[in-house]
# Entry
Amino acid sequence: MSDPSTKILIALVRQLLAIDAALGNPDGADDSRAFRACDRLRSPLSKLIGIGGFRSLLSRALALAGEDVPWLRGLHINADGSVEGLETEVDPREFNKGELALMTEFVGLLVAFIGPALTLQFLLDICPTIPDTNL
Amino acid sequence: MKKKVPARQSPKKATPNHPGKVKIRQLPTGVRGLDEIVGGGLPEFSFNIIAGAPGCGKTTLAHQIMFANATPQKSALYFTVLGEPALKMLRYQQQYSFFDPAKLNSSVRFINLSDLVLEKDLGAVLEEIIREVKASKPSLVVVDSFRTVVRKALSGSGGEMELQGFVQRLALFLSSWQATTFLIGEYTDGELRDNPVFTVCDGLFWLTQNTERNSVVRKLQIMKLRGQDSVPGLHTVRITGDGLVGFSRTQGLTAQKDRPLKRRRLSTGIPELDQMMGGGILEGDSMLIAGPSGTGKSALATHFLAEGVRHGEPGIAAIFEERPKGYTARANSFGLDLHTPQKKGMLEMLYLRPLDLSVDEALQEILDAVNRIDAKRLVIDSLVGFEMALAPGFRQDFRESLYRMIAALTGVGVTILTTVEIEDSFTSFEFSHYTISFLTDDIVRLRYVEIDGQLRKIMVVVKMRGGNHSKDIREYVITDQGVVVIGPRQTDYVRLTSGLPERIGQSPPEPAPEPKARTRRIAV
# Structure
C-alpha cells in the first residue's frame, strides 16, 4: 500500500485490533489466534454489501497481505466470511503482524472503493471508540 | 307499500379544503424540476416503481429522493438485491453533490438482501424486509433492484400468483407502516401491459434513454401517480454532477404574469427603427429579426441589449453561433460596450452547450439567468444556431418547443428579440423557414437589394401586433457606429422586396450611401 494515508490507516487498524484484544472473548475461551476484528466487521458489513461482497473483499485482502506475511497464504475464507485454515503453530507476534496486515489491506480496500470518509464512518459505527481520524 | 325513494342530492363540490378529506402530504423529490412534473411532490406513503432500461438514472433518482428526505427521525432503508453491488453503488453515488456521507447509518441505511434472494424464497425476503422495517421504522424504503425479486418469483413454482401475492403483501405492509416506497426495476416498454407489479403501485416513473444519431436523450414519463395531477407527457432529464435534473414540458407556462393594459415601448437603440415601429417594441413582446447572412441581425440585437443597459434594464444574450468573447468584441467594434455591463451583472451571455441540448434545458438556463439578474431584455441569436445546438430528436418539435419557450419567457415579462437567418430569394419574401411568425408579435425583415451596381441593405417592419407601424422600406448601412438607418430616400424604385428593383422615378439620382469603387482611367 503506497497510499500516503497508509500510516494513518495502520494506526487506525492497530487501534481497532487493540480495542478488540482488550475486549477479549466474551466466552472466556482462549482464542488468541482468532481474527476477532475481522469477525466483528463481518456481520455489519455483510448487511451492507452482502456476505458475498464481504467474502470477496476479504479474499482480496488476504491475497495482498499474504505477499508480506507468508503464513497468511495458508488461510482461506469460509462461505460465511469467517477466516479458517490456521493449522500450523504461529508465533503470537507473527500472528499479530499477520492480522494487522490483513486488516490494513481490508480497510485499505474499503478506502479504495468507497473513500476514506465513508470507510471511517462505517468503522466508527461498528467500533465507536476508535478515534475519529482523518484518513 | 311504496318504497320511499331518497331525494337526489346534488354532489358536493369538491374543494381542496373540504373538511374530512384526507390531505396527502407531499415529499420533495430533491430533483430539480421534478416536483413540478409530479404535481408538487411525492405523495407520502405511496408505493412507487422507478422503471427503465439500465443507465437511465433509476438508482440515482432513488438516491436523490432518499437523501432529500431522510433524517434521523424519518430515516430511509435502502435494500439492495442482486443489482449493482452496494460497494460500487456507494462508490459512484458519492460523486453526486446530493450524497451526504453524514447521513449514512444515522438517516440512511443500506441492507443487502442478495444472499437471501439467492438462497431462500420470496416469503423469506418479505420476512426480512418486514423485520428490518419494524426494527428501524423508516419513512422511506427503496428496493433496488426489484426486478431480480420478480425474476425469482417467476422462476419459482408459484409463478405470477406468488409474485402478485408478494407485491400485495409488501405494498400493504409498507403503506401500513407509513413508509413511502420505491421499487427499482429494469423494464422495457413491452412489459407494461398486464404486469401485476404495475397494477398494485400508486406511482410509476418511467425513465428512457434514446440514442439519436450521436446524441443521447433521457426522458421521464409519469405513467401513473394516484391522488394528484402530474404533468403528462415526456419530460427531458439530464444527469449532472447534482444528479438528475428534470425539465417539465410545461415549464414556465404555469407562472405567467398578467400583462399590464398599458405597456411601455422599449427602444431598440436605433431611433429611426423605433420610429418605424411606432415608438419601439412593446414591453413583453417577442420580436423577430429575419434576414440573410451579413445583414446586421446580430448588430441590431446588440443595439437592443446595449440600449436596455443604458436604461437600467438588465439583459441576456443567448448565443449559439459565436462565443461570448467574440460577441462582445464585435459589439465593441460598433462602439457598444457589452463588457462593462457583464462585469456589473447587468448583462449575461449564455453560450449554451451545442449539439445535444433540449429546448427545455435552454429555457431553464435562460429562466435562471432572468431570475439571477432580473432581466428585462433577452436576445436569442439565432434560431438557426439554436436548432443546430439541439439533439436531433428535439429538432422535430422545434416549432412547438419555440412556442412554449417564447410563451414562457414573455410570460415572465421579458421582451425578446430573436434573430433568424434566411436565404434571400429573388422570387419571394420569406420571414423564416420555421413558419413561426404566429408566435412573434413583431417582425422586421432585412434583405439585400441590387441598386446601381451595389448590394445594398433594406429593412421593413412587416408586423407589429401592438399597433400601427411604418410601411416604408428603408435603406440602412452598418458602420463603426453600428446599424445606421438612412432617412427616406427620394429614389423611386419598385419591386425592392424582390431584391432586383427597377427605378421608375425621374428625380435626379442620389449619391450612394457608402462610397462606390472609383473607375480608374488607364493611360494609353
